[in-house]
Amino acid sequence: MATVYDPQFEHLLRRAGFGARPDEMDTFRTLSFNGAIDRLINYERIPDEVDSKIFQAGYAGVTTRGGPLAPQSSIVDARQRWLFRMVHSDRPLQEKMTLFWHNHFATAYTKVAGTLGATEGARYMAAKASEDPGGVRGQLEMLRDNALGNFKDILVNIAKDTAMLVWLDGRTNTRARPQENFGREIMELFTMGVGNYTEADVYAAARVFTGWNLTRPGAATDGSRRYAFFYNANQHETTAKTFSFAIYPDGGTTIPARSTADGMQDGLDFIEGLAAHPSTARYLAKKLYRFFVSEFGDVSESFVSRIANVYLQSRYDMKSVMREVLLSPEFWDSSSYFARYAWPVEFVVRAVKDVGWRGYSVNDALAPLSNMGQILYDPPDVAGWDYGQSWFSTGAMLSRMNFASALAGNQRFNLATAAAPYAKSPDEVLSFVLDSMRTAPLDANVVAELSNYLHATTAWTGNAAQLQAKVPGLVHLVGATAEYQFV
Amino acid sequence: MNITRRQFVRGGVAAFSVTFAAPEFLSDLARAQGARARNLVVLFLGGGNDALSTLIPYNDAFYYSRRPTLAVPAANVLQVGRDRSNVALGLHPRLTGLRQIFDAGRLALVQRTGYANQSRSHFQGTDIWATANPESSAGYGWVGRYLDSLPSPLDALVGWNTTRELPRVLQASRVSVPAIPNAAQYAFASPNGGVEAAAERNAAVRINSHVAVDRPELAFVYSSAQAALATLDRVATVGTYTGTTAYPNSGLGQALRAVAGAMVRGIGTRVFYVTTGGFDTHSQQNTNATNGAYYNLMGTLNDALLAFYNDLRNQALLEDTLVLGWSEFGRRITENGSTGTDHGAGALMMAMGGRVNGGLYGSAASLNPDPANPTLENSGADVRYETDFRSVYAQVIDNWLGADSTSILGGNFRASGISFI
Predict the structure, then answer these.
(1) How many C-beta atoms lie closer than 10 Å to residue A47's C-beta?
(2) Omega before A47 cis (within 30°)?
(3) For testing the chain A interface, which of B275, B338, B377 should be mutated: the one with the most A CBs within 10 Å?
(4) DSSP of B333-353
(5) Which of A41, A249, A402, B349 would disulfide-bridge B110, Cβ 3.0–4.6 Å?
(6) What domains does chain B contain, in order, with CATH numbers?
């Protein structure tokens, strides 16, 4: 098996993860090319113990607010836990795919909380079943559990998901007044993409999901009381529904009239039809290309055909799909390196991994992430975040620069200590910082300006005080470069 | 047609040339001496505003029969007279400030704007309104194309976007319009103080003055950093502006305070973008109850615009300002089972400012669900557009911005009967 060099592993871990901690690099350096991809894809073989590392020495911190960390009931704590996982998980692809699905099925805490209250909003977005008194598994935990699962299963789960039923108003979809919101978006954004369905299909899809509602049995005093999916047969609209595209493998376009008792099958048939639709396969393949391979230039048509084919042949198995993505020549082409605009969370987590986390609370990244335009669990709308160049408004770029400043300042003493062996010349310090940050190649004139910065203000002595000022200053400037905004 | 709003990213990445040349500010002195500027404030109501709840045909019996819970009782609407088809109309009861402005003749309401085969997708619809191109919604925004038409050098602060993401409508090939959601926080941080901090900022400015040759994506990020660094000091002067009237603490209110501040400080900005969201009222739209969802949406809009209007009047800037409001579509006529409304078609546009010829433009739809009703479409479900939205843009471009609408819009969309400016 071909030897894999660091730049290739770094590329792999920037895309299939959130960059590489030094210990991650050490692990991956011992692996072959296939071994590395196996480790990422078959992550269930690695214990899922990252949450148990929270509060342990040697890891990034979290900030509690007068009680234990409560991600199952506080959205701020849920955000902290997810950032902590992104930094410290040994299953990086699981976290990366969860982020991909979060953007794909973009559901915003704000609306769920506005409808059900803040505590319940966090619960249905972020609770783990094991920590919730009623066994609620929040939407993002469902997606995390199915990160490389079967796409059709994910669709069924999402259609029954409490947060989704609030977010796209499915809970109010009734026989007399079908509600179009979910019926439209499942076609436009979750599966086939705009342009592949008609307004009549939207009406029919709304009727398909009539009765897919929520219920909340039990007494108000019962602490484990919860909302859950409930097929309300009385609210199901039973007539046949005809679409402009095939729902069934035989090409049939009509979901037959069914009794109210059997009517839930309408939705399952419809989801199966959407999952099997060739447009869905291509839509997902294009999105995966943009997320994992490259945002530059056109989407590779050959990639889309191959990935769409694997998706359909495997009957929607995302593990097979992602193996093909990570093995694809497009992924490994050197032109794909740093060919994606880093999302704010990618930038932030990678910076923490590169610069250091001891003594840093991930809580301190939450406000900067908001200023950069990405609040976890709160995408701006059902289409998810507007990525690519849209991340780089001037205000957001300034926020990235300022985050690099704050992180560098927080790590001042760690950085100065780490740089001490290179203190005898500014250029050795510069080489050390550039190697640690693993940034995209910098133009010579940018490197020259960084060197000028180290030489500015006072003559170089390399003493502790100088390192404590200049190394954080340099890390700030490197983290603020345009080159560092690409993964 | 299969356009996504991400297509711009794939499509063209422009090479930017943001100038560091000091722009010629319109100073307070110049303003006092009578020099006028023409400011455009683009106001986006995100989510698809329910036009029929903003401007209400309160005598149409079908309005009540098709909206049993959402219809606003005739006695509650703020009557604003009859349109050219003699339909009596009223503003939502929470829009008391807008009614004042309407009565002062400084608010124009253009009914039933849109285009043929209107998209009911938020994203495609927003892109179409932003690019002014129903055929292909990829490409630059119509306001961005106006900025591109201005003479060189183009100041980095010629536009000001008050949101975090650059909206399509302001995307231009020659300038990266800065996103400044909070002027007071728009500053360059440093882990150090004093001369070290100054050295860092100096280094950042020098690094970002480089041009990434033949790497347009990288050049784009460079240009964004460069524009941020080039505008920090001017923006800082706006952060301290409080206004002559109290602005509400809503996102829209604070954004409009910053817009007024930029005008008062005379920092050279000509085009502003503000937005307020939450108009995707699929359920519990609640038009009538105080603190109901739609009632609050109208409150946010009303209070922010009224404060802005009064502040500009006090600052003698009203004559220099045009606010153009729009939303990506109107909503279905018949309310749904969730006491909300789903995505529809014909939309309401509004224009506010000291030079606006206020009043009602266009004609209201009859809400009779008869499929043969020519003012409706989609089997009587949705309001059909009457005025092409690009005709409204043409008015603004030709008569306010003083540019040529046919070149910016890629065609002649000038229309009679909507001379609101």
Answers:
(1) 10
(2) no
(3) B338
(4) SS--TTSS--B-S-EEEEEEE
(5) B349
(6) 40-409 (3.40.720)
Q: What is the residue extent of each domain of chain A?
A: 6-279, 344-485
Strand segments, DSSP code E, in B239-313 are: 271-276
Q: How many whole angstroms separate alpha carbon A185 and alpha carbon A167?
A: 11
pLDDT at B31 over 50: no
Query: Which residue in the set B164, B228, B335 is minimally distant from A373, CB to CB?
Result: B164
State the virtual CA torsion across A327, A333, A339, A343 in degrees, nearest 10: 20
DSSP track, A239-296: S-EE-SS--STT---EEPP--TTTTHHHHHHHHHHHHH-HHHHHHHHHHHIIIII-SS
Question: What is the rounded CA–CA span in Å between residue A277 and residue B151?
Answer: 50
Q: Nearest CA to CA, how far is B179 from chain A (Å)?
A: 5
How far is it, in rounded angstroms, from Cα A306 to Cα A321?
A: 9
Rounded to the nearest integer, the mean pLDDT of chain B is 89
Structure tokens at A198: 């008609």
Cβ-Cβ contacts under 8 Å for A89 (sequence gap 6 or more): A50, A95
Yes or no: say if B302 and B43 are a contact pair by the CB < 8 Å rule.
Answer: no
Helices (H), B120-268: 122-131, 142-148, 194-207, 216-239, 251-265
Q: Which residues of A touch B4 (CB under 8 A)?
A: 193-194
Give the dihedral of Cα atoms B119, B122, B125, B131; nearest 10 deg. Answer: -170
Contacts of B9 (CB under 8 A, 6+ apart): A295, A387, A388, A389, A390
Interatomic CA distance for residues A78 and A84, integer angstroms? 10
Q: Which of B2, B166, B225 sits opposite A401 (nearest CB)?
A: B225
What confidence tens digit (pLDDT) does each residue in B309-344 have?
999 999 999 999 999 999 999 999 999 888 999 999
**Pairwise CA distance, residues A85 & A147, whole Å:** 14
Copy the structure tokens of residue B5.
Answer: 């709003």
In 3D space, the residue among A328, A351, A326, A300 whose CA is nearest the CA of residue A484 turns out to be A351
> Are B279 and B327 a contacting pair, CB within 8 Å?
yes
On chain B, the residues whose CB falls within 8 A of the CB of A395 are: 164, 178-182, 186, 228
**The pLDDT value given to residue B181:** 87
Using CB atoms within 10 A of its CB, is residue B19 exposed (0-12), middle (13-18) or buried (19+)? middle
At B336, list the tokens. Answer: 């749904």
The CA-based dihedral angle spanning residues A33, A34, A38, A39, taken in that order and rounded to the nearest 10 degrees:
-30
Q: Which DSSP helix (H) or strand (E) runs through B56?
A: strand B55-56
Dihedral pair phi/psi, residue B194, rounded to 5°: 55, -135
Question: Among candidates A267, A269, A264, which has minimal Cα distance to A247?
Answer: A269
List pLDDT tens digits, range B59-105.
999 999 999 999 999 999 999 999 999 999 999 999 999 999 999 99
Write down the pLDDT at residue B36. Answer: 64
Which stretch of DSSP H or E encloses residue A464?
Answer: helix A464-479
The yes/no answer to whether this complex scores an ipTM above 0.90 is yes
DSSP helix/strand/coil, B331: strand
Q: Is residue B90 less than 8 Å (CB to CB) from chain A?
A: no
- Dihedral sign for Cα B374, B281, B163, B18, please: negative
